[in-house]
Design goal:
- By secondary structure, the chain is α/β, with parallel strands linked by helices.
- The protein contains seven helices and ten strands.
- The chain has a six-stranded mixed beta sheet with strand order 6-7-8-3-9-10, with helices on both faces.
- Helix 6 crosses helix 7.
- It starts with 7 loop residues before the first strand and ends with a helix.
Length: about 260
């Protein structure tokens, strides 16, 4: 990506959202504006309850904003789009379907059938994820990290151009989380997907991102966009460098100032 001439793939302009808890109104997000550039990874961090997941759901077309507008690839964006993939923290795999059947489920729902070429591509995607020998296994037979890779395979099979990820590795142990971070970086570099990911891990955000967005406490507002000028491809060794530590400290300080 040429940082001097970034291409906006997604534009958020003055989006805000409130909810009602009984009779009590709750403002989740103040007006937020930003752009995502094609082929970049952005991580979204902030205190719990700051509206990070709400923002992702608005961007995915799952809930409408109260005010503001969005554009995806230059077109007004208001509803779910097959070119936008969504990965949640919970895997939501069907326990009675095999791994391969779970990966192919969205295609079955959308098209009513699966072609031999689509089945072959699903098998290739599972092999890429290191799951070649688990095509006919069931979710209960796999670890949490393996099931999350199944979800990634299912989402990437749709060839999304924008991937929204809501704390996808939050329930995994540290070593599995690091392995999937590296896998995500490798896949993103190969596919050229733009990614916006919510995380509570500052080190994960810095390792993955071109930019880190920091939200304030509720009602959430975008208080900073921190550039991460670390070289790619990224490795875990970068986490021990002074530059990495300085960026992580900057993000941590910004989150501390949101109260």
């Amino acid at each position: 990506m040429d940082a001097a001439t970034p291409t906006p793939i997604f534009v958020v302009d003055g989006v805000a959202k409130g909810f009602t808890d009984g009779h009590r109104p709750i403002q989740a997000l103040r007006p937020i504006s930003f752009q995502l550039h094609a082929g970049e990874i952005v991580c979204l961090v902030g205190p719990s309850g700051s509206g990070k997941s709400t923002l992702l759901r608005i961007m995915g077309g799952l809930i409408p904003p109260d005010v503001g507008a969005m554009w995806f690839e230059g077109q007004p964006h208001r509803a779910p789009n097959t070119a936008i993939g969504f990965v949640f923290q919970k895997t939501n795999l069907m326990p009675w379907r095999t791994i391969l059947q779970n990966v192919l489920l969205p295609i079955e729902i959308q098209q009513g059938k699966v072609s031999p070429a689509q089945r072959e591509r699903a098998e290739t995607m599972l092999a890429t994820m290191g799951l070649k020998d688990f095509e006919h296994a069931y979710p209960r037979q796999l670890s949490g990290g393996m099931n999350q890779r199944v979800v990634l395979a299912r989402t990437l099979l749709q060839q999304p151009r924008l991937l929204l990820m809501d704390e996808p590795f939050g329930q995994l142990d540290a070593l599995t989380r690091e392995r999937l971070n590296l896998e995500l970086l490798r896949l993103q570099a190969a596919e050229g997907i733009t990614i916006l990911m919510v995380t509570h891990s500052i080190s994960e955000a810095v390792l993955l991102s071109d930019r880190v967005f920091v939200l304030s406490e509720r009602p959430g507002r975008l208080i900073a966009q921190v550039e991460v000028p670390l070289p790619r491809p990224r490795t875990l060794a970068l986490m021990s460098t002074p530059t990495f530590g300085a960026i992580a400290m900057q993000v941590r300080s910004l989150i501390g100032e949101t109260g």
